[in-house]
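Ops channel
N.P.: pipeline sanity check, posting one input/output pair.
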């Protein structure tokens, strides 16, 4: 049985290293060295989903399944898996590209800018609510839940220890390691 140590380990050295990196990143962004609106390289590598649509899909998936602990790389991998499926299915490719354009249009209608450029999460969620009955929304929500949460690297970030059937089930492996429940 693997035991997870859920305590946050922060010492002076790690604090200084992390805060120095954060300050450098904040300075780069505020100084204009980094362009947030530029199309990222991973989106250029996709085959069926257009780069602008990929950028919109990435922000959409982050809003549908928000986890502060997960970096963009996990969401990018999930969008890339949908691109692989779309490369084999022209209908899906059209649905994703046209759906992203429609999502951007809905964002422009409500907030005057494309979906990925809307800064406030609550504003982006209001745009998502306006399209939640569309087949595009249902397809992205349904496929992304599998594509995102079926990554073993994500399991570790979220504290899921993986399958337990081969180890005799959860009764003897992880069932009683919930540290926030106290005996009554």
């Amino acid at each position: 049985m693997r035991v997870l140590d859920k305590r946050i380990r922060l010492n002076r050295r790690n604090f200084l290293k992390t805060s120095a990196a954060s300050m450098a990143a904040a300075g780069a962004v505020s100084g204009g060295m980094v362009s947030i609106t530029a199309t990222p390289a991973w989106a250029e590598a996709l085959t069926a989903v257009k780069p602008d649509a990929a950028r919109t899909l990435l922000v959409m998936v982050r809003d549908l399944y928000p986890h502060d602990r997960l970096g963009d790389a996990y969401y990018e991998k999930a969008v890339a898996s949908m691109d692989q499926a779309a490369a084999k299915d022209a209908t899906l490719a059209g649905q994703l590209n046209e759906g992203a354009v429609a999502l951007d249009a809905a964002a422009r209608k409500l907030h005057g800018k494309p979906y990925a450029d809307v800064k406030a999460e609550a504003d982006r969620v209001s745009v998502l609510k306006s399209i939640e009955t569309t087949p595009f929304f249902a397809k992205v929500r349904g496929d992304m839940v599998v594509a995102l949460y079926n990554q073993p690297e994500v399991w570790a970030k979220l504290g899921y220890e993986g399958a337990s059937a081969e180890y005799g089930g959860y009764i003897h492996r992880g069932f009683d390691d919930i540290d926030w429940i106290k005996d009554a």
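N.P.: looks fine end to end. Confidence is low (pLDDT under 50) at residues 28-37.
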